[in-house]
Design goal:
The chain is an alpha/beta fold and 381 residues long. The chain has 12 helices and 14 strands. The strands form 4 sheets. The protein has a 7-stranded mixed β-sheet, with helices on both faces. The longest helix is centred in the C-terminal third of the chain and has 19 residues. The protein binds pyridoxal-5'-phosphate. The site of pyridoxal-5'-phosphate has 13 residues, from helix 3.
């Protein structure tokens, strides 16, 4: 059986041509295509500094280090997220406090952040890591207000939100512009808005942070301007660079981003239309209006217990019909590496029990989307 995945990249002839021609350049890494891609990203996000790196995970690691987080600093982050942010924080030695999420959107809210601060009696918080689950940037204004009150830094794990915009007062901003956060991170993995194969992006408007990103990305090396044979090591760094070959693909993909977003939106809206009033125990999340999203995920919220059904059984049923739905994500506190087992997250539990992520990607055909909708509706008839 041919399975319908939940996500898939779209690579066309032009992408292949650009990648192929990049292989004939003198430099296939640390060359002109890296600089060009970073320049185009800077323009796209409307931020001062934009750096590419080898993955979204590397971007998060670079972001945490570059804003100065260090061992025993306190960071808050959502209980629902891909594991990358949690892993990077623990590797640095940060004290991580998970924030419960809204039971429908799977995102943290200002109320949940304040609840976490109170429950854990936190006095000084160094950073909050936000994540726009599915690409929907909720609550940015409120997060920014709490940031000002508690004087912490905000890192955006915006790996789902490349192409998303938000409204702040009467203006619209791109996620990645860092107008209401300190640093943003993106993934260029094949399932994201655009891809470089593997890859990541970090954006900021702070010159000192930008300099740190450059250093940590490449062994902490600082080279003398006119003496290429001399260099110093200013920090303990990594090789988190992205090659020119990857950037050739990124440049080509970035040109198509608006088209990609339009197609994702069309798929999203069709699901929305079909499931909005289908069954009172099956909800689609309601997000803030008039915002352009990345439409990274389509999340159905199914009250399985009220329907006398079971999520595992539903996932197996979909798979038996060739549909590879997903769960985004297993709560972080359920993994073996999480030590404080007593922690309680009621919103996260409800979200996790009820949430199913349907296939959504640029090349999902009408026929396949109709099949997915019919098979789901048949299950709940
Ligand atoms: C929300 C989120 N954060 C971080 C990452 C890590 O990105 P990468 O796979 O590029 O390392 C991902 C990728 O799946 C993600 O979805």
């Amino acid at each position: 059986m041919k399975y319908i995945p939940y996500g898939r990249q779209l690579i066309d002839y032009k992408d292949k041509q650009l990648v192929l021609s990049s292989l004939s350049n003198d430099l296939i890494t640390t060359g002109p295509l890296v600089e060009k891609f970073e320049r185009d990203l800077r323009k796209y996000f409307n931020c001062k500094y934009s750096y590419v790196c080898s993955s979204g995970t590397a971007a998060i690691h670079l972001a945490m280090l570059s804003i100065g987080l260090k061992k025993n600093d306190i960071i808050l982050m959502p209980a629902i997220n891909f594991i990358a942010s949690y892993n990077m924080a623990k590797i640095i030695g940060l004290k991580v406090f998970l924030v419960d999420v809204d039971e429908f959107t799977g995102q943290i809210t200002s109320e949940k952040i304040l609840e976490c601060i109170k429950k854990n009696k936190l006095k000084k918080i160094n950073a909050l890591l936000t994540m726009f689950h599915g690409g929907y940037p909720e609550n940015i204004k409120k997060f920014h207000e709490i940031k000002k009150k508690y004087k912490f830094l905000i890192i955006e794990d915006a790996c789902h939100a490349l192409g998303s915009e938000y409204r702040y007062k009467n203006n619209f901003f791109k996620i990645g512009s860092c107008q209401h956060s300190d640093i943003s991170t993106f993934s260029l993995h094949p399932l994201k808005t655009i891809t470089t194969g593997e890859g990541g992006v970090v954006t900021t408007n702070d010159a000192k942070v930008a300099n740190n990103i450059r250093l940590f990305r490449s062994h902490g090396i600082s080279r003398k301007k006119n003496k290429h044979w001399e260099y110093d090591i200013l920090k303990y760094g990594f090789n988190y660079r992205l090659s020119d070959i990857n950037c050739a693909l990124g440049l080509s993909q970035l040109k198509k981003i608006n088209n990609f977003l339009r197609k994702r939106k069309k798929i999203y809206q069709k699901y929305l239309k079909e499931f909005k009033n289908f069954n009172s125990n099956i909800l689609v999340p309601i997000y803030c209006k008039n915002i352009k999203f990345s439409y990274h995920l389509f999340l159905l919220n199914i009250a399985f217990n009220k329907l006398n059904k079971n999520k595992d059984h539903f996932m197996k049923y979909l798979k038996s019909h060739g549909i590879m739905a997903q769960q985004h994500y297993i709560p972080i506190y359920k993994f073996s590496v999480f030590k404080r087992k007593s922690a309680r997250f009621p919103g996260t539990e409800k979200y996790f029990n009820n949430s199913v992520s349907l296939p959504i990607f640029v090349n999902l055909s009408n026929i396949n989307q109709d099949k997915i909708i019919k098979i789901i509706k048949d299950y709940f008839k």
